[in-house]
Amino acid sequence: MEAWQSQPLDSLDLVGLILDGVHVGEHCLIVALGIAADGQKHALGLWEGSTENATLCQSLLANLQSRGLRTDRSLLVILDGSKALRKAVRDLFGDVALVQRCQVHKTRNVLDHLPDRQRTWAKAILRRAYRSGDVATARRLLLDLARRHEIDHPSAAESVREGLEETLLTVLGLNLPDTLRRSLTTTNAAESLISRTRHVKRNVKRWRGGQMVVRWVAAGVFEAVKGFRRLKGHRTMPQLVAALRARDQQLGFTEPAEHVA
């Protein structure tokens, strides 16, 4: 664990970072998954705590930075709906972070505010909006969905509107091919990593504290890493890299001397 969570990151050329939380018993774990410029996925660390704990979120990001995660150029950061994680990313990365909120988490949140009879059509509209390649069409669909629920289900309407720009437009605005765009609009890659640890966790009858949870889940992560494949759509990753570097120029970010050819 110590070796893993102190491994230098400066040689990985990371262009994306996925952060997601998962509950195990009474404990919450936050997993960090890096996406390299070639589409390769790298498990970067596992922290025990709460996704609503701002101190924990800041500590895990500081750990990644101290190990060489660059904070001087644009980085696509894909998050679940945690406000603490979002604040920690904003505080540490500032404008460097190009934040994409997970569309799967947002869909679940919206549907949780609706009665069963209305979930099917609402889910269809959300899916249509998120799969649309046109910004105006996608925004119109979501705002219309919110408007329809304004009176009877205001919490659902508020959920649709909350974080709309980061949920819908971040990756869509990069003009990426469909397959890569779908891979980068959810935290599914991190959730998939955690789901593959279940065959390890199921052997535990009773959890004895957070350290035990972390050790067992980490063991599952180490096994899952052996079967890692590149991100779906990885062949078009150069388009993402080009979009991020173009953003750097627009925002006036400059390469440190040691990175200048």
Concise summary:
The protein has two domains: 168 residues, 2-Layer Sandwich (Nucleotidyltransferase, domain 5), CATH 3.30.420.10; 64 residues. The protein contains twelve helices and five strands.
Structural features, described:
- There is one protein chain.
- With 261 residues, the chain is an alpha/beta fold.
- 50% of the residues lie in helices and 15% in strands.
- The chain is built from 12 helices and 5 strands.
- The protein has a 5-stranded mixed β-sheet, sandwiched between helices.
- Helix 3 packs antiparallel against helix 6, helix 4 packs antiparallel against helix 5 and helix 5 (135-148) packs antiparallel against helix 7 (164-172).
- The two termini are 36 Å apart.
Describe the SSE topology:
Layout: E1 14-24, E2 27-36, E3 41-49, H1 54-66, E4 75-79, H2 83-93, E5 97-101, H3 103-112, H4 116-131, H5 135-148, H6 154-161, H7 164-172, H8 178-183, H9 188-195, H10 198-201, H11 210-225, H12 237-251
Parallel strand pairs: 1-4, 4-5
Antiparallel strand pairs: 1-2, 2-3
